[in-house]
Amino acid sequence: MTNLWTDLETGPDPPEEIYAVVECLKGERNKYEYDKDVPGVVLDRVLHSNVHYPSDYGFIPRSYYDDEDPFDVLVLVEDATFPGCIIEARPVALMRMDDDGEQDDKVIAVPTEDPRFDHVQDLEDITGQQLDEIDEFFSTYKNLEEGKEVETLGWEDKGAAMDAIEHAQDLYEEHFG
């Protein structure tokens, strides 16, 4: 069986075009995680707070980030896909975040095959309302989980997102070669 984290390429042309493996769906409270040992998507937990994912959320294959997990990616979509779906995406921004003292940044990307997002090329192309909703979700989604502290640390542009993807690729290569 194919392991979507280790067997799939990072993307067709990383860091400009990446693959995003969807774990969590837009509009849902279920927190799915890709379990590389299964391999497959499993239900990790249901979010304790009454919030839902602002868009499809998952990870970038063959990446490893400073929090010792595959690098997180939020893909802006109109309609939710499904857990395990692979989306070819274009990074457009980076949200800096601290999760319990660990750097846990998020790439914000758009599907390359959805013309509704052709105009979204960089951070300034995402509406302020959408950025506020994403920030609000990640600021509050762990509030009711005992002992969990999350802090969002602001937004950076497409260049920072691509640099972070290259960093995550380098860490993956360093740890898993």
Automatic annotation (TrEMBL):
EC class: hydrolase
EC number, as in UniProt: 3.6.1.1
Record keyword Cytoplasm present: yes
InterPro entries attached to this UniProt entry: Pyrophosphatase (IPR008162), Pyrophosphatase_sf (IPR036649)
Magnesium as UniProt keyword: yes
Protein residues bound to substrate: K31, R45, Y57, Y141
Residue numbers binding Mg(2+) 1: D67, D72, D104
Recorded superkingdom: Archaea
Assembly information from the UniProt record: Homohexamer.
Stated family: Belongs to the PPase family.
Name this polypeptide is given: Inorganic pyrophosphatase
Encoding gene (name): ppa
